[in-house]
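Listing S7. Sequence submitted for prediction.
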Amino acid sequence: MSKTKGWSRMAGWSAALAACALLLGACSSIRQTGMPALTSQDSVAVVSLANFTETPAAGGSASAIAANVLRANGFADVRLAPVDGANTAMFDTAQRDTGEKQLGWARDQHIKYVLTGAVEEWRYKVGVDGEPVAGLTFELIDVASGQVVWSATGTRSGWSRSSLSNVANTLIGGLLAPLHARS
């Protein structure tokens, strides 16, 4: 085999790999701010995410996944905040009273950060293939100051044979990847 054919074959494979990467990358989108310096000893409370979808309990499902991702990222003290029976939408500006209650609970528990956010999409698309799609926004709030110290938003869709929980788990894992504990 000549060098020209070898380079040609290598270029062909490289182009195919690049095309696959573009195709797979087009299935998701993530935007986030700079990461705060966090340690494994920082306590984090995950509040039930606001559910702006038509899927019941999407906020609670996303919160449970987020708590487990944070534990896997090295945080020793991750808690799920108690659920207020009325509305748990701390993220929703119309529900700031609830958010203040949850921040008050976090202060009483000596928690350093609260992870809050919203679920904008959590469903299977209508159509022949019925692909799963998830869209979320997260905010990490410093409990002492009440300031947002980090935020991220993202969407992800899967293939027709993917499950919604797999797509959501991958998206939440990608969104929360910068929030890993340092020793």
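Caption to Listing S7: primary sequence and predicted structure tokens for the chain studied. The chain has a mean pLDDT of 84. The radius of gyration is 20 Å.
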